Amino acid sequence: MHALKSPKGSGGVAGVKKPPTPVNLNAMKGVDKKLALRICDDALDAAPGVRWNDIAGLEGAKKHLHEAVILPRLKPDIFQGLRAPPKGILLFGPPGTGKTLLAKAVATEANARFFAISASSLTSKWVGEGEKLVRALFAVAYSVQPSIVFIDEIDSILTARTEGENEASRRLKTEFLTQFDGVSSSSGHVLFMGATNRPQEIDDAALRRFTKRVYIPLPDDAARASLVSHLLKGQCHSVKGAELRSVVSFTTGYSGSDLAALCKEAAMGPVREAGANIAHVSAKDLRPIAAKDFKAALRVVRPSVPAASLKSYEKWNEQYGVSGTGF
């Protein structure tokens, strides 16, 4: 699934050219320069440093994204006409499954500039400036293409229209769709990616623009084992082999963030065992984290995704998406 390891450089796939130098704000016209600068400071991550191999599992999702984004960059002569790559990709699934990491990996592998903004920041941090910010965001992205604009919690902006929708929300949504249309009709190398835990709430008009919808499911057994092993890396522990498999067998339904919480709770076992003596104990004197610590942690840290929610994701994927579990 989504075990993040130490990145080994930020260069992308061989044969894919590196992105150009950062934008010259003085050369931009019709855009609020202050907002453009804030975007460069707050949203631009020129080198995310996450690679495919840094994400455990999700092989199906990675293959879909490789075909949709990386191959067209490598072989533009092949990916034309009916093979033209999508300009809008939606990553959907339960929370804590690695959607943001996948988007960063796409940017790294494609050697693209990566702009990441959460939808909530558009309605709070930049309140009253949402429309101008969206225009500036896409203008900056175009100026440093190839680039990827990634919006987390995209459903909160592109939610289905209602009678009680306020004017500011409506204008922000309209501006997003306008910019999205510009990306879709342009021959430039700007990709719009959105992530959501609530795909069913996205407006139909917006959903049609996401021509590639990739389901990011909970991790399977192998991915959970890989993630737990990674989280324990560098720690003093004895959870290996059969013990690791035993621990993992009890974590069906856990997301990546659930497993991180589980490992943190298990790591506290040796500390709690030391009791009042902890003030006089050094780290090297603590006993290793053991399987019994995980058994205790499993009683405290439970899966955060209800079974009913999983069924709704699977049903939505059958209707509108492509499976992230196979290819």
TrEMBL record:
Its EC number is 5.6.1.1. One of its GO terms (cellular component) is microtubule cytoskeleton. InterPro entries: AAA+_ATPase, AAA_lid_3, ATPase_AAA_core, MT-severing_AAA_ATPase, P-loop_NTPase, Spast_Vps4_C. It catalyses: n ATP + n H2O + a microtubule = n ADP + n phosphate + (n+1) alpha/beta tubulin heterodimers. One of its GO terms (molecular function) is microtubule severing ATPase activity. SUPFAM superfamilies: P-loop containing nucleoside triphosphate hydrolases (SSF52540). Residues 1-20 are annotated as: Disordered. Keywords: ATP-binding, Membrane, Nucleotide-binding. It is an enzyme of class 5 (isomerase). Pfam families: AAA, AAA_lid_3, Vps4_C. The keyword Cell wall biogenesis/degradation does not apply. Residues 85-220 form the AAA+ ATPase domain. This is microtubule-severing ATPase. It comes from Palpitomonas bilix.
